[in-house]
Design brief:
The protein has 123 residues and is mainly α. The chain is 69% helix and 3% strand. The chain is built from four helices and two strands, in the order βααααβ. A two-stranded antiparallel ribbon has the order 1-2. Helix 2 runs antiparallel to helix 4. The longest helix is centred in the first third of the chain and has 37 residues. The radius of gyration is 22 Å and the shape is elongated. The C terminus is likely disordered.
């Protein structure tokens, strides 16, 4: 069996007792979810701001183009609107995957990542 190379932080993590690894994963998940929810709220607020400001959706603008009389500000907003919509979508995906961990209550067993220790490859 060959043991895969690990980074220093991985070695430090695996050297901790199982209970400490559980706490790190549980708290890390909670902190990341909080951060992602805050970023999602900000991004969704920005998207809503542009929809209200221009009385339309980005989808409509994508289908019909910017108005002929669109000024410099609208062009700049259009670019930022794309950015914030992408952040909204990305954070929704990240939240969903972390919520899967949170819902499970980070149930750890001999075969889970936190309890796996060194990953091994057979040749």
């Amino acid at each position: 069996m060959i043991i895969e190379a690990q980074t220093e932080i991985e070695r430090s993590f695996w050297s901790l007792p199982l209970d400490n690894r559980k706490v790190i994963i549980t708290h890390g998940t909670a902190l990341m979810l909080s951060d992602l929810r805050n970023r999602h709220f900000l991004a969704a607020s920005k998207v809503k701001h542009f929809e209200t400001k221009y009385q339309t959706s980005l989808t409509y603008l994508e289908e019909h183009g910017l108005p002929d009389n669109a000024n410099y500000e609208m062009h700049e907003d259009y670019i930022m609107w794309h950015h914030w919509l992408a952040v909204t979508t990305d954070t929704e995906d990240e939240i969903a995957s972390l919520e899967d961990i949170a819902i499970q209550g980070v149930i750890l067993s001999e075969t889970t990542y936190a309890n796996a220790g060194l990953r091994r490859q057979t040749h």
